[in-house]
Predict the 3D structure of the following.
Amino acid sequence: MIFGKGKASSTDVARTRVDDSLPTGVRIAGAWSWRILAITGVLAIFVFLIMELRIVVVPLMIATLLSALLVPLTQFLVRHRWPRWLAIVTTLTALITVIGGLVVLVVWQIRVGWPDLRDQSLVAWEGLKDFLLQSPLHLTEDQITQYGEELWTTIQRDSEVWVSGALSIGSSAGHFVAGLFLVIFATIIMLIDGRGIWNWVVRLFPQKAREAVNGSGLAGWGTLTNFVKVQIFVAAIDAVGIGLGAAILQLPLVVPIAIAVFLGSFVPIIGAVITGALAVFIALIYKDIVIALIMLGIVLLVQQVESHILQPLIMGNAVKVHPLAVVLAVAGGSYLAGIPGALFAVPVIATLNVMVGYIARGRWRLPPGQANPNEFGRPVITDSKRKDRA
């Protein structure tokens, strides 16, 4: 505080002397430290709020992913002179038909094959017990039963991280139904007036920040749209590869295996392997150890193709996130929120990465008369720029 012209208070003088007495490295480290602590605190509060409101947040995020998939199709139909309401209804009908058809197909296949699978599982278990009883390990039947119970307990305990996330957003039928209706309603609203919703969000920010927020949001939306398209393509390749391998080995329940791999592949890197283990298990039950090892080799081959070809060449260009960051994001998301966390980790990280990069590069500072290109080379022209041009 200044008491006279050119005179500083004794407090300011003392503070200046203290600052001057500290090494430069300590001052810089201190400045970075309190800022990092402040940012970490804000992020922690944000994650805490998301976890507490997960019953609402998870359906909204599912609706956002569905909208990123459906908006391009709706816009395509509108560009071909379809009425907007008809384009939206057609898009939603196609989505519901595809999902419903897959569910009906899986339920029908499992219902038909369940009795045989149950009988074969008992036969395989008895065969494994006989093998262990006659093996050099000299195990008794009580020991085998005890080890089997311990293995099942371990599997249940380790799977709690994944299952708890799914159960926490739908611990009852009422929660599930409410979440389903929220997904449908939010998806419809985003298809009808997604741009209006985004414009309202942009107007919440100060006038000087709106150009940056609007441009980064459009760039992030483009990345999210590309992610959904590419992820469906990658998941389809994984499903076809593992399903075709199961069909060649003449395994039962090929269709449920392929659909499980398709859905599991939406969790990058590890999803196809975890769901592919179902095919290995079925091969071990219905065939023998040799066929199971061959099926395991097929699953690992598909996973290697995804990790070394599809992810770097296709997914890498879509999300612009390093594979190590993808693995860490999936691990962290699954630890915090189970299955939903693993599912949404990569699209959230990819979208934030593009948005932050857009703002950091400062493309939104270009003069109003110039097109402000986003991450994909398309011009981003905000409302203020349109008015200036007019």
Notes: Residues 1-6, 166-170, 371-390 have pLDDT under 50 and may be disordered. The beta strands are 2-4, 7-8, 372-373, 379-380. The two ends are 49 Å apart (CA to CA).
